[in-house]
Amino acid sequence: MKRRPLLAGNWKMHTTVIDACQLAAAIGKCSAGLADRDVLLAPPYTVLSEVAHVLQGSDVLIASQNVCWEAEGAFTGEISPTMIKSAGGTAAIIGHSERRQIFHEDHAIINKRVLGALAFGLIPVFCVGETLEEREGEKTFEILEEQLREGLAGVSLQDMGKTVVAYEPVWAIGTGKTASKEQAQEAHAFIRKLLAEMFEKNIADTVRILYGGSVKPDNVDELMAQTDIDGALVGGAALDADSFCRIINFI
Ligand code: PEP
User: Fold this and answer.
1) Structure confidence at residue 177 (pLDDT)
2) Atom 1 of ligand 1, nearest CA residue
3) Does ipTM come in above 0.85?
4) Would the CB of 9 count as within 6 Å of ligand 1?
5) Is 168 a catalytic residue?
6) Is 213 in the pocket of ligand 1 (CB under 6 A)?
7) 169 lines ligand 1 (CB under 6 A)
8) Catalytic residue (choose from 50, 96, 105, 134)
9) Is 212 flagged in the annotation as binding?
10) Which numbered atom of ligand 1 lies nearest the CA of 175?
11) Which of 68, 184, 200, 236 is least surrounded, with the fewest CB atoms within 10 Å of its CB?
12) Which pLDDT value is given to residue 174?
């Protein structure tokens, strides 16, 4: 089944207001007129509305890098779905391995974030992936299954159809080590099969599954040629306009 490719850039904790506006403008330019794919940027919260402003009138989608499940309240340090939407965002990355590992976000909190995002009409870009130790211990599929079952618990069929999943092996994030196209395809096929079991085959067939982990201009084409890879979630290379533009324009 043909799914519309999605190329997403996660700027993590990078960019001042000026850097962000310049980068967004360059990406806006090189993604103009691409009718067959979607482009998404996840800037830091501090520049969400500036980036949305720079990209006004373009088709580039804006996401936050995390999201709380409440509209407002006493949640110091958090950002709500309503705030993200008011700043121009339509999606939210949830469950990134840096949130899981550095900030100890567990399945329960990640699940609350997914359900909260959906309840307020934001598209979750839900991240899963195994560590090197887990891969070497042959636990990859067990870990992916646990993350998917726990993180997507309670998501309706209709909402799952809107959700994006990102497979990001932790050992490949920011390390320069990319999963081989075979390793990535194997994990994506596993995820899609599991989604069919958890939801429905026709839903699993429409869900976009992105690969993330040292995606670069020189490996994007072979990754995107895999049957179950529908896009990329890009960290480091998304901070360089030329590299990200090449990734967006994958062949
Ligand atoms: C990421 O931040 O999700 C990521 C995959 O980073 P990088 O592309 O730098 O490995």
Assistant:
1) 85
2) 235
3) yes
4) no
5) yes
6) yes
7) no
8) 96
9) no
10) 10
11) 200
12) 86
Q: What pLDDT score was predicted for residue 19?
A: 97
Section 31-52 average pLDDT: 97
Residue 246 has pLDDT above 90, yes or no: yes
pLDDT tier at 6, thresholds 50, 70, 90: very high
Active site residue 138: no
Q: How far is the CA of 10 from the centre of ligand 1 (A)?
A: 7
- Which residue's C-alpha comes closest to atom 7 of ligand 1? 235
Domain boundaries, the chain: 6-248
pLDDT at residue 2 tops 90: no
The mean pLDDT of 44-67, rounded to a whole number, is 98
Residue 123 in contact with ligand 1 by CB distance below 6 A: no
Please check the confidence at residue 152 and state whether its pLDDT lies above 90.
yes
Distance from C-alpha of 249 to C-alpha of 243, rounded to nearest angstrom: 10
Among the CATH numbers 3.40.190.10, 3.20.20.70, 3.40.1160.10, 3.30.43.10, which is that of 6-248?
3.20.20.70
- The reply to whether the predicted model has a pTM over 0.90 is yes
Which pLDDT tens digit goes with each residue over 74-106?
Answer: 999 999 999 999 999 999 999 999 999 999 999
